Amino acid sequence: MTANAFATPRFSTLFNDIFKRHPEAVAAIACAILVLLGWQSLNLGWVGGGLFILTAAYVIGGFDSTRDGLTTLLDEKELDVDLLMIVAALGAASLGLWRQEYYLIVDGAVLILIFAISGALEGYAMQRTERSIQGLMSLTADTARLLQHGQERTVPIDRLQVGDRILVKPGELVPTDGVVEEGASILNQASITGESVPVEKSIGDEVFAGTLNGHGALRI
Question: pTM for the whole thing?
Fold first, then answer.
């Protein structure tokens, strides 16, 4: 079996993975390529081919904006910038076809490309934010040492109530926000506040869920 037999499935799998994770970026790249090909086709006098390629650029680059704009219009009865951009691009294309000034169609395609790139960057930023939030969520403890009637027992976090007293031993994650009632320690708050140096905590100080307790036990 040749190397190409392995390369094709791997490439297909890689492309599918990238498309699933970054569909906006794939659409923006495809739109950019089609705009360049369409513009070059018009330069070479291939009007029919150029118009076909630019139509594909409109569809691929403007699909998300059209969907989002129509959704906003139908659900919220408001015009947003996405739909206005599509209308402007289609207006340029219509004017270009009517006057046979085909570079107006290229202008509309470039406008759609700009919004496609903007959507890709916004999608990337949203994915980074989601990953950061998921990372913070993974730092929180699932259980807490609840102190009641002089006894210590381990309970799920969602069973804690306002006013409960919990014990955090050295090396454990603080399970919930609270105020130190007894004890002193240093807490690593880098995951929450970004501080690189551990912070000393004692009676009356506020502590945050997801921070790492240092050498001392705390009653919160």
Answer: 0.58
